[in-house]
């Protein structure tokens, strides 16, 4: 015959979900601990989106909890029956009132969904274009597995190329022209705005703005091949005055050094590195790899993967395939002296 | 035995008064014994079981691939796998789960169940049914052979160009993937055609379209969608193969091609496909859950309509996979709005299921636990999808682990969990034995906890910016603990799946006998023996409600009275009755084909063509083509026994 | 909805006209193949609206109608022949059925030959440009469908000559004819896309 089950206590799995959620959100790490997080924003393009993100997130959590409670409640509100024997007949019924659940549930859901659509459209309108016309345009080309960056200007003498680390002035929108260099990549600096792909055959555009000076991490976020995991980028926001100073500095060629080791390093660099890398004002004019003028200004190397300190730089030069297996850069054949010379030379590129 | 005319008045009889009929039908319908019989069978039940077992084999393979690369991702900067190995593993994992498991397992269940649910003797096109399985098997082996030899696809299951083009991906990996997918697409198309024709023509007399189980609506919707969607992806892969092998210029830019053409064609298929791999599973829940609530499903009509509406809307949202590609705002707005609104029909289902439990009297069997828990997982997957539907939010979320969390909640939550529940529910019918309920509970909780521990943290690592498809990550990004927990959870989930498989094997060998209707369920399949005889029904039932076996107890709703054990006697050979599309009034006696080798041979000749193309052996492709043509002509040769010729049909 | 299902009375047996399962299967084969062509033509239009140098899309300017237009008429005529064949078998005239099928098949083969000559005269190849790739791929897919259709028509001809069909049992004829008419209709869409839209300004 039918057996009655004793009523269950509050289902354990729901407790687990609830604790996970609390742990996650009450202890949301500060920006420094999670440099690619986008729940906190630092620029005009990201701000409205963060509110919307939190909004839909809270709606989602609420819906999940409500539905989970309803399901649990439906199951455990009455003593459940047990299947006594396979094939035993158990009563069936068709109580009324079921449809009301659907009408009410779907109506509430529809209202929430429509409100979400409206909010979405409003935010989309707000972030599609900047409030003021950008005074600065930077052209970014996504390449396997680094970022080519070119600063544009009405004055041709102020146009220059760099790589992987992008400086922008604070407090004003900056326009980015995004070009696909080989395969599809995606340009993303979470703290400042959403991502836009770089696609061969078309030119995409986006804009970013930073409220305050700081260093903001970015990452390629469209699978682009074997070293997709190691294609980061850095955006450094500076006050407009500092930014102009930085730009002026970037335009300068490195001073020719008479120092023997540095001169030797320059020649070794030309020979071994110049076919792929460029340094302004020297014979090295390669475009297959990142421009290395003012390399020492950068905080990271290898597209944000390694800190720019002497040991890591030497490691990367002598074992590029170990750091980023599959990149175009092959292990250069350098004697210990040549390596030391090149290191001494690179140190002067500030 | 007599020779029939072009028409005949079939006998109507009561089953109990026809003692010789079951044996007579058994001789007509059973598959010949032995290996040759196994190869030539067209029995939908055998084909259904093969689909399910093959799909589970691929599920395990795909799962093992994931377990391997989860080790690589358990901590930052690990070197257990090279990037190339990782790329092939994650791509093959996606390809396996989405194409070789998720669709076929539902096809298998539907293949087995549809004729039984609809009161028919087989699917409308039994040889085509066998063909769809054999091609699936051949395509799966073709794709895995490439992986086994180290040429697995490595550009993600979505295979974007230009990285998939010859210039960046020179090995045979992408060629094998492209050709294998086209071959697989033939299987899916052929199977979908069979489901639609069966739905329109083979329902039992009286089973009007508002009386079919929701599983039938789910599979029908998926099948109709596949008819229109699969050509897009098959074409995309074919154009890519041509670009890579014949020098065409569909996708490469300098000569007028466009990378985004790939994305449009792929996602115009891809989005409907993800609904095709969940709607039948939702249908299984809609049919199974009410049995354990001892009441009919709340809102049958709106649930059926919501099923169709979801799929129709599903054709209008594909661009939401492309929000970051630089499309104009107008386009983005439309697709964003559609992607959010598509949640409305899903809400219909969720509240129908909750209402069914709430107003019913739940029985906590293992099957019920899987079906009920699915509602919560569906909701989590649904809301994370709702979040990504909002364009500005998606610009942050897309290509992060948030989407990985979303897709696993929808795929595992809305496909795997219902499928496991469906096994617990229908195993007694397929095998005649009950599964172990105690092990079932352990199975359920292990899978449930493992799954949530594994995949819930991905929402968080996604919100903290962890990108997808990365073979490793730096420390200090805030992701370390989350990834470790995910890896641990995935292993626990795998143990749960292992428990399920153990339960299946043990129960198959030693489970207690089930009887015809162990769950006291209402639909027609429970009126047959367990397992059903080869001919399904001794006489063709006549149906007057959605719950033929509950009519005497429900009262009120049902005007007429179904006859399950009295009806048309069709025994002049393999026969079933054809009925009109809407109201299911009998309009023809259909002659069904005998076992045949033609489907197996055709799948082999087709596979030969694709192997030839993969290795650029053009003469072999032509030979394969000629053999294919010959097999088709032989198959379609008008047959007297099938009533295709001017002579009256013979018996048997 | 009938309150009682009539189970008495005679039912036809076998593959009869549009009650044959094969007929319904062919309807959905037609839907899926039509979708294939829809996606092919989508690809054409998607690439057509991208920026191109003048005169490269279509390559060599709008394609000439000199062969394509009469060829279209030939294909339409073949459908008429097949339709006439269908009309006759429903009236038990096997002889005219055979004639109709034969004429339809021959006209289909003439279409193929003329199209082959048109292909040979093109100044571009499959690998010349995106336009060349599209032209030969789309018309090539159509040609493949015509080849299959012609083989099918000859098989139907052979089976008809062998006396397989009569005014009750002719399901194969209608099923095959449906496919053939579809191939014809799709050609109109392909023809319009490649030959007419450039004259209306599509492309560069």
Which helices and strands appear, and what pairs or packs with what?
The complex is a heterotrimer of chains A (350), B (652) and C (204).
Chain A: H1 12-26, H2 47-76, H3 98-128, E1 136-143, E2 146-151, E3 160-163, E4 165-169, E5 174-180, E6 185-189, E7 193-198, E8 203-208, E9 214-219, E10 232-238, H4 240-251, H5 260-272, E11 300-301, E12 306-307, H6 310-318, H7 320-323, H8 336-347
Parallel strand pairs in A: 1-5, 4-10
Antiparallel strand pairs in A: 1-2, 2-3, 5-8, 6-7, 9-10, 11-12
Helix pairs in contact in A: 2-3, 5-8
Chain B: E1 7-8, E2 11-14, H1 21-29, H2 34-40, H3 44-72, H4 83-118, H5 126-148, H6 173-201, H7 214-246, H8 259-276, H9 279-291, H10 300-314, H11 329-341, H12 343-358, H13 366-389, H14 391-397, H15 401-431, H16 437-463, H17 480-510, E3 540-542, H18 551-554, E4 563-569, E5 575-579, E6 586-591, H19 598-614, H20 618-636
Antiparallel strand pairs in B: 2-4, 3-4, 5-6
Chain C: E1 11-12, H1 21-48, H2 68-89, H3 94-121, H4 130-161, H5 171-196
How would you describe the overall organization of this protein?
The complex is a heterotrimer of chains A (350), B (652) and C (204). Chain A has 8 helices and 12 strands. Chain A is α+β, with helices and mostly antiparallel strands and 350 residues long. Chain A has a 5-stranded mixed sheet with strand order 3-2-1-5-8, with no helix packed on it. In chain A, strands 4-10-9 form a 3-stranded mixed sheet. In chain A, strand 11 (300-301) and strand 12 (306-307) form a beta hairpin. The termini of chain A are far apart. With 652 residues, chain B is mostly helical. The longest helix of chain B is centred in the N-terminal third of the chain and has 36 residues, at 83-118. By secondary structure, chain C is mostly helical. Chain C has a domain at 68-200: Four Helix Bundle (Hemerythrin (Met), subunit A), CATH 1.20.120. Chain C has helices spanning 21-48, 68-89, 94-121, 130-161, 171-196; one strand at 11-12. The longest helix of chain C has 32 residues, at 130-161. Chain C starts with 10 loop residues before the first strand and ends in an 8-residue tail after the last helix. The interface between A and B is large, with 106 and 111 residues.
């Amino acid at each position: 015959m039918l057996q009655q089950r004793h009523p269950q206590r509050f289902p354990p799995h729901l407790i687990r979900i609830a604790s996970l959620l609390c742990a996650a959100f009450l202890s949301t790490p500060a920006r420094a601990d999670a440099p690619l997080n986008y729940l906190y924003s630092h620029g005009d393009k990201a701000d409205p989106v963060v509110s919307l993100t939190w909004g839909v997130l809270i709606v989602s959590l609420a819906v999940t909890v409500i539905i989970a409670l309803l399901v649990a409640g439906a199951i455990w509100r009455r003593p459940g029956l047990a299947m006594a024997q396979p094939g035993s007949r158990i009563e069936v019924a068709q109580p009324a009132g079921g449809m009301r659940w659907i009408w009410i549930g779907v109506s509430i859901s529809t209202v929430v969904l429509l409100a979400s659509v409206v909010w979405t459209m409003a935010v989309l309108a707000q972030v599609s274009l900047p409030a003021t016309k950008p005074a600065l345009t930077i052209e970014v080309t996504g390449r396997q597995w680094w970022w080519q960056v070119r600063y544009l200007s009405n004055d041709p003498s102020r146009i220059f190329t760099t790589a992987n680390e992008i400086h922008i002035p604070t407090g004003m929108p900056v326009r980015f022209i995004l070009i696909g260099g080989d395969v599809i990549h995606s340009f993303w600096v979470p703290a400042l705005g959403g991502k836009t792909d770089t696609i061969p055959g078309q030119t995409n555009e986006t804009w970013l703005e930073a409220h305050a000076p700081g260093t903001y991490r970015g990452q390629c976020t469209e699978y682009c091949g074997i070293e997709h995991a190691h294609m980061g980028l850095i955006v450094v926001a500076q006050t407009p005055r500092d930014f102009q100073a930085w730009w002026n500095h970037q335009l300068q060629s490195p001073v020719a050094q008479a120092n023997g080791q540095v001169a030797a390093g320059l020649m070794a660099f030309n020979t071994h590195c110049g076919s792929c890398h460029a340094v302004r004002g020297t014979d090295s004019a390669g475009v297959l790899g990142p421009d290395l003028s003012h390399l020492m200004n950068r905080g990271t190397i290898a597209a944000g993967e390694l800190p720019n300190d002497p040991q890591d730089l030497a490691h990367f030069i002598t074992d590029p395939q170990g750091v980023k297996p599959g990149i175009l850069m092959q292990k250069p054949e350098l004697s210990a002296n040549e390596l030391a010379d090149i290191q001494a030379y690179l140190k002067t590129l500030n | 035995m007599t020779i029939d005319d072009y028409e005949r008045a079939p006998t109507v009889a009561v089953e109990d008064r026809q003692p010789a009929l079951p044996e007579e039908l058994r001789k007509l319908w059973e598959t010949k014994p032995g290996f040759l019989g196994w190869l030539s069978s067209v029995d939908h039940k055998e084909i259904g079981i093969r689909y399910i077992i093959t799909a589970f084999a691929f599920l395990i393979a795909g799962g093992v691939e994931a377990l391997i690369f989860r080790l690589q991702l358990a901590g930052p900067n690990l070197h257990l796998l090279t990037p190339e190995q990782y790329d092939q593993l994650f791509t093959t994992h996606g390809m396996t789960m989405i194409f070789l498991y998720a669709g076929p397992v539902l096809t298998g269940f539907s293949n087995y169940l549809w004729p039984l649910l609809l009161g028919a003797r087989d699917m409308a096109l039994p040889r085509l049914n066998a063909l769809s399985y054999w091609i699936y098997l051949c395509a799966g082996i073709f794709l895995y052979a490439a992986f086994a030899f180290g040429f697995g696809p490595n550009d993600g299951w979505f295979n974007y160009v230009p990285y998939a083009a010859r210039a960046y991906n020179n090995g045979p990996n992408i060629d094998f993937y492209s050709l294998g997918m086209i071959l697989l697409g033939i299987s899916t198309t052929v199977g979908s055609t069979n489901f639609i024709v069966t739905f329109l023509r083979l329902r039992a007399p009286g089973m009007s379209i508002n009386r079919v189980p929701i599983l039938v609506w789910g599979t029908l919707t998926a099948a109709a969608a596949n008819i229109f969607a699969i050509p897009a992806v098959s074409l995309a892969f074919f154009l890519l193969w041509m670009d890579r092998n014949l020098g065409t210029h569909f996708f490469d830019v300098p000569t007028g091609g466009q990378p985004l053409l790939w994305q449009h064609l792929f996602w115009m298929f891809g989005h409907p496909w993800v609904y095709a791999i969940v709607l039948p599973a939702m249908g299984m829940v809609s049919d199974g859950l009410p049995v354990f609530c001892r009441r009919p499903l709340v809102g049958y009509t709106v649930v059926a309509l919501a099923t169709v509406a979801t799929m129709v809307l599903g054709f209008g949202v594909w661009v939401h996979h492309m929000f970051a590609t630089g499309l104009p705002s107008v386009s983005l707005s439309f697709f964003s709005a559609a992607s959010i609104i598509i949640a409305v029909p899903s809400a219909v289902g969720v509240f129908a299921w909750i209402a069914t439990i709430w107003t019913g009297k739940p029985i906590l069997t293992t099957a019920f636990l899987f079906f009920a828990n699915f509602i919560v997982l569906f909701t989590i997957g649904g809301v994370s999808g709702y979040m990504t539907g909002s364009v500005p939010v998606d610009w942050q979320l897309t290509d992060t682990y948030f989407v990985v969390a979303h897709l696993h909640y929808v795929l595992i939550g809305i496909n795997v969990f219902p499928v496991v529940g469906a096994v617990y529910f229908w195993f007694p019918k397929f095998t005649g034995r009950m599964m172990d309920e105690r092990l079932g509970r352990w199975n359920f909780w292990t899978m449930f906890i493992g799954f949530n521990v594994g995949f819930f943290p991905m929402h968080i690592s996604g919100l903290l910016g962890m990108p997808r498809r990365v073979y490793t990550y730096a420390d200090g990004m805030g992701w370390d603990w989350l990834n470790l927990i995910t890896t641990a959870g995935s292993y626990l989930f795998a143990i749960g799946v292992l428990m399920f498989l153990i339960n299946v094997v043990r129960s198959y060998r030693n489970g207690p006998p089930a009887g015809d209707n162990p769950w006291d369920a209402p639909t027609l399949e429970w009126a047959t023996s367990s397992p059903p005889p080869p001919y399904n029904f001794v006489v063709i039932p006549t149906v007057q409600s959605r719950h033929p076996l509950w009519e005497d107890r429900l009262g009120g709703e049902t005007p007429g009275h179904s006859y399950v054990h009295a009806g048309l006697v069709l025994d002049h050979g393999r026969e079933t009755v054809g009925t009109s599309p809407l109201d299911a009034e009998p309009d023809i006696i259909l002659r069904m084909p005998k076992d045949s080798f033609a489907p197996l041979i055709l799948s082999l000749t087709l596979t030969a063509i694709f192997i030839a193309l993969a290795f650029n052996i053009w003469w072999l492709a032509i030979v394969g083509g000629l053999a294919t043509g010959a097999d088709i002509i032989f198959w379609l040769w008008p047959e007297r026994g099938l009533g295709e010729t001017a002579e009256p049909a013979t018996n048997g | 909805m009938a309150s009682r299902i009539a189970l008495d009375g005679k039912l036809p047996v076998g593959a009869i006209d549009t009650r044959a399962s094969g007929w319904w299967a062919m309807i959905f084969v037609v839907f899926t193949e039509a979708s294939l062509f829809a996606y092919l033509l989508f690809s054409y239009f998607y690439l057509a609206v991208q920026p191109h140098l003048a005169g490269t899309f279509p390559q060599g300017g709008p394609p000439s109608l000199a062969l394509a237009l009469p060829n279209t008429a030939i294909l339409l005529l073949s459908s008429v022949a097949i339709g006439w064949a269908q009309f006759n078998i429903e009236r038990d005239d096997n002889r005219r059925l055979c004639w109709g099928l034969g004429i339809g098949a021959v006209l289909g083969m003439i279409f193929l030959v003329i199209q082959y000559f048109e292909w040979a005269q093109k100044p571009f190849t499959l690998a010349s440009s995106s336009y060349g790739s599209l032209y030969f791929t789309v018309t090539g897919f159509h040609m493949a469908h015509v080849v299959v259709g012609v083989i099918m028509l000859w098989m139907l001809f052979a089976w008809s000559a062998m006396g397989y069909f009569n005014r009750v049992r002719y399901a194969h004829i209608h099923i095959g004819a449906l496919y053939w008419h579809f191939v014809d209709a799709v050609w109109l869409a392909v023809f319009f896309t490649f030959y007419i839209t450039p004259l209306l300004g599509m492309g560069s």
